[in-house]
Amino acid sequence: MKNDFNPTSYRLQSMASGSLFDDTGWILDAPGELMPSLIRAIYPDKQLHLRNEEFGLYKFASWLPVQRMLAGSSAPVTYKSESIGNYLGLTNLYITFSGYWPEIGAKMSTCSFKETEAYSVCGRMNFGREKALVVASAGNTARAFAKVCSDNYIPLLLCVPYDNIDALWFDAPIRDCVKLLCVESGSDYFDAIHLSNMVCKSDGFIAEGGAKNVARRDGMATTMLSATTFIGKIPDYYFQAVGSGTGAIAAWEANLRLLEDGRFGTNKMKLMVSQNIPFIPMYDAWKAGSRQMLAYDDELARHDVEEIYAKVLSNRKPPYPIIGGLFDALTDSRGDVLIASNEDGLAAGQLFKELEGIDIHPAAEIATATLIQSVGQGHVEKDAVIMLNITGGGEERFKKDHTIEYMEPDFIFPISIRQEELAEELRKLRF
Question: Crossing angle for the helix pair 419-426 and 189-199, nearest 10 degrees?
Fold first, then answer.
């Protein structure tokens, strides 16, 4: 299989200026441009070429900015829902499932679509073991990158809030090439991002880049590619819960590529993204008609994060205002930001398990809850083609089938850690 793969050809484009340039390295920003903007991968293949299922995620490699394929990847699986679809009276509800559900062919052992990011980002890497990749995460992303980097001997440094480390479970020991730093109890995802930024000021570390990394977004875009190629057309609506909104941006970008492809219709699907009450900063900004995020007191934000049960939906500095970011994606797609409570999400998750037969993650439960609400309020047509992006599921099933162990932190830092103190501890790490 691996002998049948050549690095994907692509160029990069600034969403602010439209300028095109080569990916000469680990580029996250347009060279020489001052205005904050996402960059986008531009592929010479305007039509998507699908490989066999044995390639896993890399079946979509013609639209992934990758130099190599890594072992162990799986692609999202899309199917038409008869159970929830019938329950809601929807004739064209399609579920794209990323997780562990062997009966439908879903084999992501971390049970999250964050694997799509990790296999794409690490497949893009063109530097050796002299630098460690630095990833900040609220949980699922860290688990996915830890698995991929451990399996493929890639140096990785994770930064995770201490209160979220129960998300770092695995069915096999994680190799020493992966290290874990935590921010003390009471911190949140924003604090983990801040720590990762401090780490990257030291030699030997390189930032993964988050939403700015084209490989992360195009990896996540495979959920949209899975749905569209299965359905045979671009969906009318796209439902997903968002923490940063990167997955929704990726779906929008995939939609634009599929329009160029020409085989899947001419519509732009409406992005229907959701947040978990009471942590709803993007909802507040969107409903205020503001490109900029609204003021949000740090202590209040941390308090609100503690209140939500979908902890991965807790990014205080999302790529919402940046050119090419979520504000632009929502505007261009005529989408909306929705909200659901913990109780709404839990009820939706129970319904999903009863009707579809598999457990799903809290973020996916929030997305399902807002779909149920939207149908009940008459905001989506009963015959519309709807894609529900189930971004994680099958964890209960996976843990029942496997022996699980948890990763322990190498260091736990206070929120107020100083740069020189951090640098001293980093020197003790051996990858």
Answer: 70
pTM of the model: 0.95
Residue 332 is encoded by which pair of tokens? 């261009």
Helix, strand, coil percent values for the chain (each to nearest 5): 40, 20, 40
Domains, the chain, in order of start with CATH, read: 77-110+216-399 (3.40.50.1100)
* 364/291 Cα distance (integer angstroms): 26
Cβ proximity of 228 and 234 under 8 Å = yes
From CA 124, how far away is CA 101, in angstroms rounded?
28
| Model confidence at 419: pLDDT above 80 | yes
Is the pLDDT score of 225 beyond 90?
yes
Residues in the chain: 431
Contacts of 311 (CB under 8 A, 6+ apart): 138, 139, 164, 167, 305, 362
Q: What angle do CA 121, 243, 320 make, to 5 degrees?
A: 85
38, 322 contact by CB (below 8 A): yes
Q: What does the block give as tokens for 221?
A: 């875009």
